[in-house]
Write a structure and sequence with these properties.
Layout (H helix, E strand, L loop, with lengths): L2 E7 L2 H13 L5 E6 L5 H15 L5 E5 L5 H10 L5 E5 L3 H7 L9 H14 L4 H15 L1
Parallel strand pairs: 1-2, 1-3, 3-4
Main location: cytoplasm
Subcellular location: Cytoplasm
GO molecular function: kinase activity
Length: 143
């Protein structure tokens, strides 16, 4: 199973993990590493490295960070450059997990999982107006 490490500023990572558990139940090979105000990047680096050992099941690890360019992302990116079986995704949202959490047992290539996780996250970013317009368009085309 591909392991997931959620990370981000404040308590966004643990909040996302809490939401995942609420909606989908407890998940194996998933942990959240927060970066609260006042923590140093050295502590975050050590904590992320330790998290790898706690969740890695031999099929790779995907870090999912909150913000491109932020400290959690940059540290995860540095760690990923040290191992070919670690990927980093940014733009943490619940939709990506709704589509991909249960695919971790079926996808054994961490790069493919990363690509599909990003696509699922992008699909989840939309607006009601756009969704309704597409629905109306589809209904008009069916006539």
């Amino acid at each position: 199973m591909i392991a997931l490490i959620l990370t981000g500023h404040g308590r966004i990572a643990s909040g996302m993990q809490e939401a995942i558990v609420q909606v989908f139940g407890e998940q194996a090979a998933l942990c959240a590493i927060d970066f609260p105000e006042g923590n140093s990047t050295a502590v975050l680096d050590a904590t992320l490295r330790q998290a790898i050992f706690s969740v890695d099941q031999g099929e790779g690890v995907v870090f999912v960070a909150d913000l491109l360019g932020g400290s959690p992302f940059r540290i995860a990116a540095t760690i990923a450059q040290e191992r070919s079986d670690i990927e980093v995704v940014t733009g943490l949202n619940l939709q990506m997990f709704a589509e991909m959490l249960f695919e971790r047992d079926e996808i054994h290539d961490v790069a493919e999982f990363r690509q599909r996780l990003v696509a699922a996250g992008k699909n989840g970013v939309t607006s009601l107006a756009e969704r309704l317009a597409r629905k109306r368009e589809g209904a008009a085309n069916a006539l």
